[in-house]
Amino acid sequence: MDNGIFQVYEDEIQSLEEEVKLLTEKYEDSQQESTFFSDEEILMSIKSFQREFQGESKGHESPSDLKAQLESLEKDLSFLMKFTGIQFTSHSKKTVEKTRDRTVGKHRLSGHCYSVSFQLEFQLLEMQNKENVSAVITDLSIIMESGEDSDVSKFVSSTEERGNLLTFFRSLSSYAEWYEHRRFTFLHFK
């Protein structure tokens, strides 16, 4: 009988030791997560939340001001879409790595420019020092419906190597606009 009682106690001790081990691991994980942010950043976040909950935040305008600002931004976006022909249909972002002064995010964009569809996938490395933030695009992958046009394939390959999105969007806008003109011209003669 004594051995049975000891076995029950031994099992209970083992169960408690496993629970302590799991709780220790959870605690260490939470400590690692909190080391991503400096004490200053944590204090600033706490103060920001306190101001927000107390209604003292100066950065927030009245709902009517926000609505007017949103309408203005929508007009600007509409103008840019008409001007460039580029319309984004979806965007997703996933944070891959985040440290105190460095963030790596994986982005996916899809859309169309006139009748030419495109998809982009890239990683954005953002590095922050005391004065400014710099961003670098890596692992750029572009998928475009260009048919059998080898010049477009060469352009896409060189853009992927350089990682220059501004050049891509400028060139895409020009190419897609002239592609539309050629298409309408050929339809006219059919």
TrEMBL record:
Coiled coil: 6-33
Keywords: Coiled coil
One GO biological process term: CENP-A containing chromatin assembly
A GO term from the CC aspect: nucleus
Record-linked InterPro entries: CENP-P (IPR027801)
Keyword Membrane attributed: no
PANTHER family with a match to the protein in the record: CENTROMERE PROTEIN P
Protein name as catalogued: CENPP protein
Gene source species: Nyctibius grandis (Great potoo)
Gene that encodes it: Cenpp
